[in-house]
Amino acid sequence: MSTEDSKSAHLPPGSQHTLDEASIEKTPIDTETSKQSWDHGAAPDGGAKAWLVVLGAWCALFCTFGWINSVGTFQSYYETSLLHQYSSSTIAWIPSLQIFFMFAMGPIVGQLYDRFGPRYIILGGSFLHVFGLMMASISTEYYQLLLSQGVCSAMGVCAIFQPSMNAIPSWFDKKRGAAYGIVATGSSLGGVIFPIMVSRLIDEIGYGWAMRVAAFLILVLLVITILTVQSRVPPRPRAMSREALLRPFKEVKMVLVILGFVFLTFGIFIPIDYLVVQAMSAGMSSYLAQYLVSMLNAASLFGRMSAGIFSDKIGHYNILVSACFLAGILVLALWIPATSNAAIIVFACTFGFASGAYVSLAAALVVKISPFPEIGYRTGLLFLCSSFSGLTTNPIAGAILQHDEGSYTGMKIFSGVFLMVGSVAVLAARLSHTGLEWKAKF
After folding, report:
1. What is the Cα–Cα distance from 87 to 33, expressed in whole angstroms?
2. pLDDT digit of tens for each residue in the chain (442 aa)?
3. What is the spatial distance between Cα 365 and Cα 257, in angstroms, rounded to a whole number?
4. Using N-to-C axis directions, what is the helix angle for 153-166 and 207-228, rounded to 10°?
5. Quick one: which of 277, 274, 267, 272 has its CA closest to 352?
6. What fold is seen in the domain 24-434?
7. Closest to 97 measured CA to CA, from 63, 59, 142
8. DSSP 3-state of 183
9. What residue ranges do the domains of the chain occupy?
10. How far out from the chain centre does Cα 64 lie?
11. What is the secondary structure of 358-411 as a DSSP string?
12. Cα–Cα distance between 154 and 97 in angstroms, integer?
């Protein structure tokens, strides 16, 4: 009999249908966290060092996910100017490679984090990210942008954001969701600032210098990340056993969470990447359309923070499932029929808010069901599996767009359905732990 079952069996009569923390909250990570507690003391849930880690991780998310969230601006610019001779589906490989390498390096970065800690990984990632953007600023050919922006910069992004997120659990326990939510607002604010900044700078000083200015801003913020992000628990410089590497694939909850994020990634990036070009095709002026990604990310800021805060009270899985399922409904029920400027703007804001949980709670879901020494590897594994969705989702969307002769309906259906399917898979992971206890906090 499992620990959870034995505890449930000794609950007072009638209490099974409102399972308390004794039966729901004790997961593998809780056991490992307790080991961590007597080795290194309980997580402080605050203090100067802890909040400096949050500041550094916030800067990391601003420079990584915030930058990736602005790819819709580049998709539009490349299609109309720099790479106008290429089709939409061909250009879509640039943001797709960004998403792929941002996630695909996850297990490697995760194991390096578990063995050596975050600082030197973030240092190397910062060099790759800034160098890639500098090379993109002097690129004039399609293959050059693929290598600089799609590969080099994206590999650096992975080595920055993943160690920064993985450092949070050692500093926060009861306030972990809130800490993740605050950190995730960095990506939202970056997604607000970068599209406006880059589009304005391209008009005023040209594409090359616009990219260089963005790279210099990123460099300054990453210096803060390098100086502040650290793990409270010392790393264990030993290689993982083969059994430990394969263990996540034998755990039903972990497999379902991975499948859920594979499906969610298929759906989540299509509105971000195609919102601007779809709005312009519907008659919105290019001046107004360039602000849509910023509107989406501004709403996402509130979605990510609220998802993190309420997840501490309601449960990480409960919040993510509800938010991402709502995002799928919004795509199918609001984005498909949206043709007016007002409807498209409303969709951008509501989808941004609902999709915020995808970023703010991804790592928290893994932490909830993982042994503490394996958090880096397991988080990386989740991102690796999701990377294949990130690699193919935009080219698939572009191919659907071409097949439908410029109609965006099929592409929107693809996005909405996968968001809902992914939410159901994560819900199945939650139910595999709690059973049909719908009010359980998990």
Report:
1. 51
2. 444 444 444 443 344 333 333 333 344 444 444 344 335 567 777 788 999 999 999 999 999 988 887 776 777 788 888 888 888 778 878 888 888 888 888 888 888 888 888 999 999 999 999 999 999 999 989 999 999 999 999 999 999 988 998 898 888 888 887 888 889 889 888 988 898 898 889 889 998 999 999 999 999 999 999 999 998 887 776 666 778 788 888 899 999 999 999 999 999 989 988 898 899 998 899 889 888 888 998 898 888 888 878 887 888 899 999 999 999 999 999 999 998 999 999 999 999 999 988 878 888 888 888 887 788 788 888 988 988 888 888 888 888 988 888 889 999 999 999 999 999 999 999 998 777 777 777 7
3. 8
4. 30
5. 272
6. Growth Hormone; Chain: A; (1.20.1250)
7. 142
8. helix
9. 24-434
10. 10
11. HHHSHHHHHHHTS-GGGHHHHHHHHHHHHHHHHHHHHHHHHHHHHHTTT--HHH
12. 8
Residue 398 structure tokens:
């572009």
Global pTM? 0.76
Range list of H helices, 229-374? 242-246, 252-281, 286-289, 292-314, 316-330, 341-360, 362-368
What backbone torsions phi and psi does residue 39 show, to the nearest 5 degrees?
A: -80, -40
Other beta carbons within 10 Å of 403: 11
